Amino acid sequence: MQFPWQQESWNWIINWIWLLLLLVYMFYGQRLQVSIWVRQIKRALQKLEYMVRKGKEITIKAFRDVGNSDANIVSRINDFLEFFMIEPVDRDPSGIMYKLEHLVNVRDERFEHIVAELAPNVSRDQAANLENVLEAIIALNFIYRIVRHFLILGEKTKSYILILQLQMQLPEIMKYANAYFDALKAFVDGKPIGDGAGVLSVTRLLREHGVVGKEQYEEIVKDTVIAQTKIDDRTVIAVRARGPGGTVGKPGEAIRKLFEERKLKIDRIIMIDAGIKLEGEKTGGIMEGVGAAIGGIGIDKYKIEEVATKYKVPLDAIIIKESIEEAVSPMRREIAEATRKVVERIKRIINERTKPGDVILVAGIGNTIGIGY
Questions:
Q1: Residue 53, exposed/middle/buried by CB under 10 A (0-12, 13-18, 19+)?
Q2: C-alpha dihedral (214, 361, 337, 206), degrees to nearest 10
Q3: Domain encompassing residue 261
Q4: Does residue 319 share a domain with residue 241?
Q5: How far is residue 232's CA from residue 212's CA, in Å, rounded to a whole number?
Q6: At 89, is the pLDDT very low, low, confident or very high (cuts 50, 70, 90)?
Q7: Rounded to two decimals, what is the model's pTM?
Q8: Model confidence over 284-338: pLDDT tens digits?
Q9: How many domains, the chain?
């Protein structure tokens, strides 16, 4: 049996407990929340640190397996991990693309130089794969350094805004980090990756129409090849990066050269590339539109748009949907199957939008690692 005064006593105690909790939350709630965020970030940072450490081991082993045992591989790779490129000034935009192209070429030469130094006896394709390995570990190390920087800065300045922003972006950051870590293993093994979907599509198209060997391709600019065939009384010129080493080539410069130096009269350009899908969309879905379907920092896209505009050539774009993780990890079955559908889409565009006797340029954009001829 409980007396009324006992019930009132319990209510009074409960009210005081709630009041105490409210006061604690008012004065210390933000600190408690920040401490939870910090713990989450530190756990992610530990995972990133493991990825970088493991990634360095994978990179060093890849060079040791094919490289010069006399070279100081560990020291040189550690020195190269923080390699960077400073983009040109953009306050005077005139000519900025050519400045950027120059810097990118110099950057590429640096990667080629260190690979030649550490692995002088590898083939051209193996060297290209090792360059990709270096790019992946540099990107992974950069993500780790940035997360560590903002965590330390947030704790040092006691800025909950910095900590909050970092915690909110953590899922996206870890998505990119996991993608680059998976890419490392794919580059070392020389496996095709999702980003090669455009190249594979064009290669399938050429194989269907008699272009089945390396000797039928011509290297028109560095790391970029062309091949020619006939489809339904139309001349089709295909552009893609050379393979099976991991390279994206210079498709913009190749297309510019076909127009400007070889003076070809091209009636239509069809470009195929991998594209980042939206959440909820199916991997391997196909989209069709217009424009230069090519990623990167814009050099190749600029050159393609320039010649297409100058000569008034229509630009068709076909995109194969995939996530960022799928783009840099071994190619999934859905993406490989989508390339077969893209071939049919290309042939339909050729039949419906061109006429017999026309010259069509088909450009397969992407990384050619693991994709031969």
A1: exposed
A2: -30
A3: 194-364
A4: yes
A5: 19
A6: confident
A7: 0.86
A8: 999 999 999 998 888 999 999 999 999 999 999 999 999 988 998 889 999 999 9
A9: 2
